[in-house]
Amino acid sequence: MTKKRDEHKKEGKEFEQPTVDQSGREAVPEVSSKETELEDKITELNTGLAAANDKYLRLSAEFDNFRKRTLREKMDLMKNASESVIVNLLPVIDDVERAMKAIEISDNLETTKEGISLIYNKFKDFTKQNGVVEMNAKGLVLNTDHHEAITKIPAPNEELKGKIVEVIQKGYILNDKVIRYAKVIIGE
């Protein structure tokens, strides 16, 4: 006990004698109202923290479920997106098969040409309905955003110098996006 008293004197503090109860044990001092308020505040803050953590965990789990569900829906959409296009192409395939049978049987070349022309027009209408537009390139200035130059040849006249003289393979645009560049020959 004297050791503690000496330490406190060195630090400049006054040492209080512990109170002893009737049984000779040290009496525990009563907790002040400020300490009780602090303990209540700590308990309240801990409760709030636990609630916030629970809310965060639930929100995190909900977001994770949303993300997984969205990915699953995207995968299903991508897997089945071409279904409507294929279903609309089936009549064209049927027409081509009928034309092939007719070519084997028929001796009349004109009716065969006419049938193939009808199939071609039906297919062109189908592509237009689905947003596919054919690029017109002949006579235009080379635009590398739409055209792919294969080679250069001497221009047949002065007007075609630096312009597209011939289209080797048509280009196509789907909803303002080039899906196939036109392969062209440039006049020089």
Which keywords apply here?
single chain, 188 residues, 3-stranded antiparallel beta sheet, 3-stranded mixed beta sheet, 54% helix, 15% strand, elongated
Please characterize this protein's 3D structure.
- With 188 residues, the chain is α+β, with helices and mostly antiparallel strands.
- It folds into three domains: 43-81; 85-130; 133-188, Head domain of nucleotide exchange factor GrpE (Nucleotide Exchange Factor Grpe, Chain A, domain 2, Roll).
- The chain has four helices and six strands.
- The strands form two sheets. It has a three-stranded antiparallel sheet. A three-stranded mixed sheet has the order 2-6-3, with no helix packed on it.
- The N and C termini lie far apart (110 Å).
- The mean pLDDT is 84.
